[in-house]
Amino acid sequence: MMGTSTYKDSAKGEIYHIYNRGNHKKNIFLDNDDFSFYLLRLKTYSKENNFSIIAYCLMPNHIHLLLKQNSTQCPQKLMASLHTSYSKFFNKKYSQVGHLFQGRYKQKTLGSNEYASYLIGYIHLNPIKANLCSEPQAYTWSSYKEYLETTTNNSMCDHQLIQELGLFFDLSSSSVVISVLNKISPKEAFDDPQD
């Protein structure tokens, strides 16, 4: 289904689940401007490094990204640029020093589109599991609302790719939510469960 990748393992066409959390599990986003800045940088660096965004969820103390590599450029360069830029922004804004993130990001390679679909559901359910909202579309800092919209203006996600892969996912019924949570457990989705 899903395999662990080392940071040197990458290939054009691969889809990765990338995740990381704040150092000592502390919050890495303290206000709306922090979330917005991270997303702006994610969009910029994804384009620069030729990655497609399939799904994302920014939680107060951790992030989930589902990305497709479209060239020989590896995820490590994208994530180093993204997290270095965001860490500098955060530390300057809040007059802090030191590491913002808990070590290097984690990366898993997806083995099937079916698993990718369930992982998209799992990622978008994070805010509900954390009691931040009661339905995924109510959470501002995930890509779920993009999955509900028919227009793609200013989208973060690559809707054409999502359609080609058949990855649009509907979390509107409780039976689907239960199915997602039963299909993917934190132990299976992550080397180091953190959400």
UniProtKB/TrEMBL annotation:
Per the UniProt record, one Pfam family is Y1_Tnp
* Domain Transposase IS200-like span(s) in chain numbering: 11-126
Q: Which InterPro entries match?
A: Transposase_17, Transposase_17_sf
Fetch the Gene3D superfamilies from UniProt: Transposase IS200-like
Name its GO BP terms in alphabetical order.
DNA transposition
GO molecular function annotations of the record: DNA binding; transposase activity
> Which PANTHER family does the record match to this protein?
TRANSPOSASE IS200-LIKE DOMAIN-CONTAINING PROTEIN, TRANSPOSASE, Y1_TNP DOMAIN-CONTAINING
This one is known as: Transposase
Specify the species: Candidatus Kerfeldbacteria bacterium CG08_land_8_20_14_0_20_42_7
